[in-house]
């Protein structure tokens, strides 16, 4: 479960959970936040405006800085172009959910279907579009397509960050199965 360079024991007070869409970032981060009493920060909620409008890069950077000003937080989301300089340097632990593509793709379909059917609002104003998820040839419309198109680049970025000297103070955990996530949660619960 631990990667080279990862330290056993406490996860610390500032945790980042990264991985592809539907790997369970928000679920794990919210559970860890609840166990530790830390704030849960969902980066999608900071980034997306009503009607799926993206935040201006400077506005998003300011939101990141403000949201991560506290001493204890658990963050879910990637946005590496923005977080590598603002969030990661403050992190104690970065957990990478490196799950197989077939699993995350299936979860995108199931989650999108559920959200679309229930008309669940995301981050207050945005609704899921189920049929778009099946358009895997269009990464701009489909989370599956986006995940496929970005998989190699994202994995390379995470692997590179794990050996980057600027993050030598950070513990990296690379989890590749739901069983490893369950083990981490059980250990975290016992530590509390």
Folded structure, characterized:
With 192 residues, this protein is of the alpha/beta class. Helices cover 48% and strands 16% of the residues. The chain has eight helices and nine strands. The strands form three sheets. Strands 2-5-1-6-9 form a five-stranded parallel β-sheet. It has a two-stranded antiparallel ribbon with strand order 3-4. Strands 7-8 form a two-stranded antiparallel sheet. Helix 5 packs across helix 7. The two termini are 20 Å apart.
Which value, in Å, is the CA radius of gyration?
16 Å
Ends distance: 20 Å
Largest sheet: 5 strands, parallel
The overall average pLDDT, rounded, is 84
* Percent helix: 40-55%
Kindly name the structural category: alpha/beta
List segments where confidence is low: pLDDT < 50 over at least 5 consecutive residues.
Answer: 1-9
Count of DSSP helices?
Answer: 8
Indicate the overall shape: globular
Q: What are the secondary-structure elements, in order, as H or E?
A: EHEHEEHEHEHEEHHEH
Assembly type of the shown chains? single chain
Beta-strand share of residues: 15-25%
Strand order of the largest sheet: 2-5-1-6-9
Number of strands: 9
């Amino acid at each position: 479960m631990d990667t080279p360079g990862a330290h056993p024991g406490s996860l610390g007070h500032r945790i980042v959970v990264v991985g592809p869409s539907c790997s369970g970032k928000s679920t794990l981060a919210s559970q860890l936040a609840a166990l530790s009493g830390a704030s849960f920060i969902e980066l999608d909620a900071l980034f997306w405006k009503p009607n799926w409008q993206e935040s201006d890069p400077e506005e998003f950077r300011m939101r990141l800085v403000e949201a991560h000003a506290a001493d204890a937080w658990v963050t879910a989301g990637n946005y590496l172009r923005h977080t590598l300089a603002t969030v990661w340097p403050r992190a104690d632990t970065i957990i990478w959910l490196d799950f197989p593509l077939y699993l995350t793709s299936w979860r995108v379909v199931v989650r999108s279907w559920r959200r679309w059917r229930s008309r669940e609002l995301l981050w207050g104003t945005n609704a899921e579009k189920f049929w778009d998820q099946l358009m895997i040839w269009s990464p701009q419309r489909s989370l599956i397509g986006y995940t496929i198109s970005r998989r190699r680049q994202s994995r390379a970025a995470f692997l590179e960050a794990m050996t980057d000297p600027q993050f030598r103070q950070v513990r990296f955990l690379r989890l590749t199965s739901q069983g490893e996530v369950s083990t981490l949660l059980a250990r975290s619960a016992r530590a509390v």
